[in-house]
Design goal:
By secondary structure, the chain is an alpha+beta fold. The chain is about 45% helix and about 15% strand. The protein has a single domain, classed as Double Stranded RNA Binding Domain (2-Layer Sandwich). Strand 4 and strand 5 form a beta hairpin.
Amino acid sequence: MHSYFLPEWNALIEMFVGRADNSMFTCLECGKMSTHKINIVSHVESHHVESPGFACDVCGNISKTRASLRMHRRRHKKMLSENR
């Protein structure tokens, strides 16, 4: 399990995520809404909390959000598959 899935970090982020009456997810800090929870989680990580940074286990690159780290790691996988 990666360090960016620490229960303490998830609990902090969850404090900012709510559910609206119409089944939308909402940021409790600013009111931003989305039908997908991951969009609000990423929004909170990038706008409302001081991120510890999420390090790539391949190259050490530091990403501000877990979503940006996942996108970064996909590039490594793509490069590896292209080089085969």
